[in-house]
Sequence to fold (637 residues):
Amino acid sequence: MRTAADLVAAPKPVDVIIDDAALPPAHGALWRALRHRSLVAGLFICLVLAVLVFALPMLMSSVDLNAQDPMATFAPPSAEHLMGTDAFGRDLLSRVVYGGRTTILASICIVFLGGVFGTTLGLIAGYFGGITGFVIMRLIDLLLAFPGILLALAVSAVLGPGLVNGVIAIAIILVPVYARLVAGATTEVRHLPYVDAAVTLGSGSWRIILRHVLPNVSPGIIVLTTTWLGVAALWIAALGFIGLGVQPPTPEWGVILNDGQNYITLAWWITVFPGIFLAMFVIGVNLIGDGLRDELDPTLVRH
Amino acid sequence: MGNSVSEVQTADDVLLELRNLRTWYPTGGGVLGGGREWVKAVDDVSFTIKRGETLGLVGESGCGKTTLGRSILRLEQPQSGQVIFEGEDVLKMPAGRLKQVRRNMQAIFQDPHGSLDPRMKVRDLIAEGLVVQGEMRRDERDARVAELIDVVGLRREHLDRYSHEFSGGQRQRIGIARALALRPKFVLADEPVSALDLSVQSQVLNLLKDLQSEFGLTYLFIAHDLSVVEYISDRVGVMYLGRIVELASAEALYDDPRMPYTQALLSAIPGNERASGRARIILQGDVPSPINPPSGCPFRTRCWLAQDVCSELVPPLREVKPDHFAACHFADAI
Fold:
């Protein structure tokens, strides 16, 4: 029913009034996020753990982690040793607390290393595609074809036992996980009109990747990181448990668990306490991951 | 640029000229390319756009009009042909020169939601071209951005907001400001209003018209809405299956279409008083696949005038009347 004449009669652009009241408040993101229950619970758990593991040792500076007390082996939890002692009479609390530093810092290093390399490969494969993308993705498929922990075992067996080698071995497993996710998201973003707009303005590929693609695929990366932080902690503990990761007597949750397994009927506390801490950490970061997944999902309606 | 390889002679008043442009996509076939077929999205298209004019391009969805626009901006890589912008072939330009020329060739995109990066503030969205082209100091850039936001009818307070806080029409204004930031000569408007409400459509169209006279812009305006195209265009091209089938001044094309397909399109405008004297033409069948277009005239499978000659010879786009081109064997008789 409309002809060119109707268009002429339409109001001029100057008449446009923008109703500010209709626009949502610009700075509600943090406040909104804090109303998310699992996010808050996860943050709380991780905060408590961080205080225990990173702040508490400052109060225990005089404690010798490896001080053995042959008179007090397998002492059950008491006022003197809150978590009891192990087979050598070492104070379990201080070992669990210090061991947590190793486990948590190692898992952060793992997701950082795996994340940086995996994300870079994923961005390149997803953005440029073609032969480059094809080759990268097939290599990634090759890595993904191995069960993760088996690959980590093989790599750390080749590199030799030790914390650093364990971190490298597990980081290698994470590379394809990140690359897969990022490549997929990048391919999607790459075909959005705002990338065309950036090309039309004269932006080069790397500028587009860093300024447009990376920020828009980052929610997925953040969520993946929180999920895998917990898994990395489990795996570094698993490597420690079977003797390929951190070497005794250095405390690390997996190593302590391993120490305790032989005496689990005799001295349950050696296994249970580091186990509880490890579980807390994994649950905490996973809850944060769940919360972030909801909060960072742009498809959800924001209120 | 005297020794530039890409230099081509064109008439002085011509800003953009397409010569035999073909953009074909490979489809099917395996990794090694066996059994591959081609989607002829843009097939042998030639036309010129003069400085300061608006060329409208209409056609059904899938007829190749968007691919044509993208090929001009080198967002697609055409198979063959030339895109001559101010005497230089855009398709043969090295990357460095292409980046310089992009200042003068900008685009407004169809989707007001997808065309603005959701992670950038309006200020950075509009300034992006200036930053990329690196031609201004920060304070000059800020001044240009502030000026642009006024020009497109938004307010300076909006510069620090994100695009998801705006309506479709407002976002399209942001997109227009971004396209104009580099003071281009040519703007490709790819269905800039088809995603907008009717009332907002006319506001944006009027804005585009005002900006054209203010900045001396040349538009290639792609749309499927015939009344929108008639309103904004000086000349109009009709596309069917990747080819231009009729090209004339807006007046001549709407008053005296010489290609059956154009007649059918015009008769389909609801309440079109000029068409009311004629019977409504209902086209039979679907648009043929651009992978296997009909032999001869691409429209012959749906044309009520089709004769044997139509399946044998491709009708060339010929001048039926002065400045009125139509690709039909019977264009004079209609």
Q: What stands out?
A: The mean pLDDT of chain A is 82. The first helix of chain A runs from residue 4 to 9. Chain A touches chain B at residues 1-4, 6-8, 10-16, 18, 20, 23-24, 26, 134, 192-194, 196-204, 207, 211-212, 215-216, 298 (CB under 8 Å).
